[in-house]
Structure formats: C-alpha cells, structure tokens
C-alpha cells in the first residue's frame, strides 16, 4: 500500500498538505485538493475505510437515521425530540451538521452507502427494532468498522455499540412503587416487543412481581404502540378486567395520558379507582390532570453521550489509537422514579 | 458557454447521461459520473448557480438552519418540532435528507457557503429574527437566487420568500374571544419583538381593542421569551397589576402554562379569578389543568408547504420555467380559535 509521502510526491505537494486534504481541515485550493485526491486514488492510498471516506471529502455531517411512520410526527414525541436535542447539542458544539434520514421500519437499509457516498462521517440509529432486517443492516456497519451508535436498542451482536437507558430498573421501580402502596394486581401496558427497551420494561415489571412472590399473569398485559391514541384504545381492554386490577403501569407517558383520558370518559377516576403510573417523565407529565407519576429517563443525555462518543472516535487521535477498542461498547444510563398524583389513591394525594 | 452536447461528446457519453449525472438521478457508475463532471468542468458548462452546485454533485439534502440557544431543547418545543415534522415529511417523500445546522442568534451567518460547498441543495430558515445581521445574511441568499424559504418570519425585503401563519388574525381572535365574554382590561404576554410573528400578534391584539374603542394601555403588556419559565416569571409582574386585569392573552401555550402555574402558586385561580388564553394549540394544551383555550397554528403544514415548494423549485422543470417568478412569494396560512376551559370563568366552564 502506498505511503503518504508517495501521494505527496505524485501530487507535487507536501505531506502536510496531503493530510490536510484527507482530513479536510483548513482552507485548501480546489485544484490542490483535486490533485491530492487523484494521486491518492491512483496509488490506492487508503488508511482504512473511514479514511477512504475522508479522501472523497469529509461531509462534516453526523447522520441520524429515523424510522418513517406515516402520520406520526416523530419530532413531536418527547422520546425523539429529547434524544435529538441531546445529539444536536453535541453536534453543534463540534461545529458539525446533523443529517436526518428516514428508513422504512422493519426493512433493510443501506447504511454503508451513506458512508461510501460521503453523505455522513458517522451514524446514529434511532428507533431501531430487533427485526432481523434491521439488525442485519446495522450489523453491516459493525462488520465494516464504520463509526456508529444505536440509541436505546440493544442487539445480541456484541459488535453493535449502543447507548441505552436502564429500562429494566425503571420499569421495576414503577411496578415496585405500586406494590409498595399495597396494590397486588398490577396491569402493564407495554409497547411493541420488537424493541429491546419494551422487553426490558417487561423484565423489570416481572422482577418486581417475583420479589413479592406475585405470580405473573399474562391476562394483565396490554399492548399499545407508545402513542396516546393506543393508550386511549387500551382503556377498553383494561375496563373489561377492571375488577381484577388494582393499578396500571404504562411504558410511556403518552399511553398513560391516553389511558387516563379513556378511563375518565368511562367514569373511572384516576387515581381514585385506578392508580396509573407513566414512564419517560415527559414535558407534559407535571401539567396534566392528574399530574403523572412516572419514571425519568435521561433521553437528552443518551443522545448527547452517543454523539459525543462518535465524534471522539472520529478524531484523528482516536483513529490512530485504535477506535476498535472503543467499539462494541454498551453504555447504560440509570432511570429514576418521579412520584406525582396519578399513582396515589385519591385519599392520599 | 458550452452546450450539453459538447459535454457529452467530450465525456464520450450520451446527452441523457450528462443530464442524469448533473441532476443526480438514477444509479450511475462512479467512473461515468467522474468523466461527465470533468468534461463539464473543462468546458465550463454551467446552467446557473444551482446547476453549478449540481455539477459538483448534488447533495440530496435540504438544509434547515436553526438558532442555537444554550440549554434550550429546541426539538422539544412544540413550535420547532411541528415545523420540523412537516419539513421531514416532505423531505422523506422526496427521498432527500434533512441537514440541520445551527447558527448563532443575532449574528451573521454564511448561508451561501452551504450552497457553494454543496452541503445543501436548498435551505429553510427557522426561528429567524428581524435583527439586521440576520436579515442581511438571509438577503444574501435572495440576491444570489438561491432556493430557500424563511418560515414564520417576514422581512421588508420583498425578495425574501416566506411561509407564515396569520398571527395578526390569531391574536385578534384570542383577544376578541376574551372581549366577547365581557372582559375589558386584557393583559397581553408577548414574546420578543425581534420576531415579526410577535409584532403581528401585538397588532392583532391592538386591532381587537380598537374595534371596541378600548384604549391601548402599555402597562398591560408583558414580555417573555416563549418559554414556560418566562411565563412563570411573568406571573409576578401580572400579580402586581391584578386589580386592573380582567383576563390575559399569551403568545404561546408554554408561557400560558407557566403563567397559570405561577398564578396558582400565588393563590389566584385560573379561570376563576383570571381567565387565560394561550396560543399554538400545542400537544399539551388539551391535557393541562385547566384545559387551555388557545389558537391553533398550522405549524406542521407550514413546514411541509415550505419544503414542498422548495423541492418543486429544485426540479428541472421549475428551473427551466424560471423559478424567479416563484421567488418573492409570501404564503400566509390561517389560524383559528380553540376554546377549552382556561378562558372561561369558573361558573361557566
């Protein structure tokens, strides 16, 4: 493989200029840049896959790949907006751009082409599921040593780096809170099991029951899709087994708010007849009626941390020092309980 | 100036291939692409400034330039998240990427370099103010015939195209609603006058007063910064003139929610003692306590419309047909009143 010096000689420039072009730092005449790139190309000069992308011109963009769901205003959900705010903060500090791209949920997605065509320097994947097509597409990035992080979703493949929140703990705390208040029969309104974070929530809920030797009852499980509407619709199923329920834990605040609305319309007061706890500690949680007990999740911090790590891995020092040691990391941020009124029975609230 | 045929001849490809490369449509072998670009470059083939950017490789990205305000989670505000959702929907449909970039509020910003360096094909400006540095920077895009739209902010310069909401009408409707209910002395909590949309809201408020021959009283004007915290803090100033106030109109829901919280803490019930109306019809408005009367603003539609128009202007047909006829357009979308409980006195609600 050619050396930097050979590239410099062929292009008729200094080695420093070769570095400046390949790392895309500082102002460089377009002609000089072209000469260096051509020389590097002719000599097959490649540091590694990332350097090759740099050689074509670093984009200065961090890609954020989001699922596209028709009619869902993704940015208007607390979950995505907070993660994006955190990413945006880190990206802004680094003077980079944040390139939002959509993928079809559950389908294959060609992440590698985003690197190959220099649209992005690094990638963050949001709202990913465990569906095989998605895992396969993401694994391809790991196999090619591309710089990326998945946020709030984990995979069996240990090569896939993730920043997560501890949803086992969060959901455990929510269920335990209801059990601590003397309730025994706790309904659980969860999101799709395609998300590892939903499965983690279920695990936390089950752990809390196990601790009290309360048998797990599948008939007390309900499924929504994390939208308020799905929470509202779940009210119907929950009302059918109301006699058997002491309280309900929901896997996010939006579903809890929808559920409470549905229960209200059916004349079932919350928390009076049925205490409810949410999850996320979203913007609205403190202001809805009744104020929502919930679990705080550091979404903003997750986004910021993942983006900061990515950009650290992009730095020349990290690449020289072997970013592979950094890869494969799973970072789990803690969650915590926030008690307001929706989970307390009327008398106590 | 060279013709497309000359470029095709020099590159040894068909004219159709030249078009496909320069418009970046369909799959093209990298070698073919390079040959065409080199030939076009050598012959100085340029359709216009935009085509020149295409010749360097169309980015496939719509740029969205946002103000960076430390500690403000922009995406978590209803205003930005809804506009971005609308933009995202249009951009997704067109198969393009959405490149978010931050600018310093009140400072000059070099939009043109984003086009020159092919980072973006077209630009949307969000959260812009009337400060001279910002207007100057945006005017530079108009002077260079770059494809762009400003959202929810208007300028004196008729060359700057904008998609707006009719905030004069919206604010007029809010004030008129309070006047219709028999209130006369209406406080007005507005945002910064640096935004044309704040000035429009003030105009609407004044118009409603004028219609009833109620003199405008500057002492009933309060200023926040559209954050909930600023609404909470405004409660103090509003409490000082409480004796003189029948009701308060706020320029967004967040300030209204903060104000209501501040009033509650001071023992002043809303709407019982002081009816309050918000503005935006945000996600939370229906669920807060009391449910917020407000003004619906089609933010999502504004973002979608602006992005769709931009992308239409980018299409080859529009460019051939003279996109300049399209430029300079101001599109104003209507707003409407939404009555819930916060503006109704307790007895009536």
From TrEMBL, chains A, B:
Residues 2-56 form the HTH lacI-type domain. Gene3D superfamilies: 3.40.50.2300, lambda repressor-like DNA-binding domains. Keywords: DNA-binding, Transcription, Transcription regulation. InterPro entries: HTH_LacI, LacI/GalR-like_sensor, Lambda_DNA-bd_dom_sf, Peripla_BP_I. One of its GO terms (molecular function) is transcription cis-regulatory region binding. It comes from the Bacteria. Pfam families: LacI (PF00356), Peripla_BP_3 (PF13377). The keyword DNA-binding applies. SUPFAM superfamilies: lambda repressor-like DNA-binding domains, Periplasmic binding protein-like I. The keyword Hydrolase does not apply. This is LacI family DNA-binding transcriptional regulator.
């Amino acid at each position: 493989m050619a050396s930097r010096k050979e590239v410099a000689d062929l292009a008729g420039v200094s080695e420093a200029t070769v570095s400046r072009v390949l790392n895309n730092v500082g102002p460089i005449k377009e002609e000089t840049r072209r000469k260096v790139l051509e020389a590097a190309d002719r000599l097959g000069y490649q540091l590694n896959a990332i350097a090759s992308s740099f050689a074509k011109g670093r984009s200065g963009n961090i890609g954020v790949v989001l699922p596209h769901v028709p009619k869902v205003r993704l940015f208007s959900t607390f979950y995505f907006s907070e993660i994006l705010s955190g990413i945006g903060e880190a990206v802004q500090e680094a003077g980079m751009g944040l390139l939002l791209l959509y993928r079809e949920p559950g389908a294959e997605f060609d992440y590698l082409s985003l690197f190959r065509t220099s649209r992005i320097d690094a990638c963050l994947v949001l709202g990913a599921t465990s569906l095989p097509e998605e895992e396969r597409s993401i694994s391809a990035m790991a196999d090619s040593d591309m710089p990326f992080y998945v946020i709030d979703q984990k995979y069996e493949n240990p090569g896939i780096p993730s920043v997560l929140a501890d949803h086992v703990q969060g959901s455990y705390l929510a269920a335990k809170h209801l059990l601590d208040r003397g309730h025994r029969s706790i309904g659980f309104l969860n999101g799709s099991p395609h998300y590892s974070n939903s499965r983690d929530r279920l695990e936390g809920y089950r752990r809390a029951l196990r601790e009290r030797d309360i048998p797990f009852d599948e008939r007390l499980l309900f499924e929504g899709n994390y939208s308020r509407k799905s929470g509202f619709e779940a009210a119907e199923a929950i009302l059918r087994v109301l006699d058997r329920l002491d309280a309900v834990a929901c896997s996010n605040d939006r579903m809890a708010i929808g559920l409470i609305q549905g229960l209200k319309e059916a004349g079932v007061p919350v928390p009076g007849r049925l205490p409810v706890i949410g999850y996320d500690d979203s913007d609205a949680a403190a202001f809805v009626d009744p104020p929502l007990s919930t679990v705080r999740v550091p979404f903003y911090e997750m986004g910021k941390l993942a983006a900061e790590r990515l950009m650290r891995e992009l730095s020349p020092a990290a690449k020289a020092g072997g970013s592979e040691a950094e890869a494969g990391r799973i970072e789990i941020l803690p969650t915590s309980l926030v008690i307001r009124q929706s989970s307390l029975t009327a008398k106590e609230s």
